[in-house]
UniProtKB/TrEMBL annotation:
CDD domains: ABC_Mj1267_LivG_branched (cd03219). This is ABC transporter ATP-binding protein. GO terms for molecular function: ATP binding; ATP hydrolysis activity. GO terms for cellular component: plasma membrane. Pfam families: ABC_tran. It comes from Paroceanicella profunda. The keyword Signal does not apply. InterPro entries: ABC_AA/LPS_Transport, ABC_transporter-like_ATP-bd, P-loop_NTPase. Residues 9-249 form the ABC transporter domain.
Amino acid sequence: MNPGAAPILTCNAVSRHFGSLRAVDAVSLQVAPGEVLGIGGPNGAGKTTFFDVVTGITAPSGGRIDFMGRDITEAGADEICHAGIARTFQLNAAFEHLTVAENVAVAAQFGRHARRFPGFRLSAASRAAAAEALEFAGLGPKAHLRAGDLPVLDRKLLMIAGAMATEPRMIFLDEPVGGLNSAEIDLVQELVRRMQARGITIVLIEHVMRFLLTLSTRVLIMHHGQIIFEGPPDRVAEDETVVETYLGQGAARRLKRHFAGAPAHA
């Protein structure tokens, strides 16, 4: 990450309202190229809605979003994907009846750029991008399996492979290790590190604090649609508002011991 580089993503007073509910309330932030930005907060804080707005799934109620110097505020999800932003979801998003390879090939075919005449035949470039993404995610040996038959870990890896097949500049990961055991979390953690090593900028939401704080170069904590903390990972547990509204005293103590070098599992 180059601290002096222009931000790859800028959000200025971005909001999303559902009637009187301010799910995202005037959120402003910048993300530097190559950064891993971690977002935490209690359920209902507005984290996923914020992802939905930035990635074009939900239209914003106000504010402006710029990606690589381009205004994408009103752009649709397909246009934003073609511009270089990919994402995964909390719930396992896949074509259940297709194979692992077919799912990733669809992402490569339609996610990399707009096609005026899409057709039904995969291009050689799409097949190559899909094959590379499958190997990157460790799913090459399972390419022939039906997506609906995969266990939880492989479903999450499939979403990551699909995102990588679009050749993104930036990826939004929504709870990539939710429901996984410790060994599986470590596997995904290493995968995210390899994504960052390729120069991909990453924004991730996660409740597993060990994962979130270990990977992130900077952390935001959201509550009631607003940012209540922004700073380095080792300062999260020291913020009284974060401890009171999200972590609790027990988790805060474990995180402090973790950053002090003592064994701890948050």
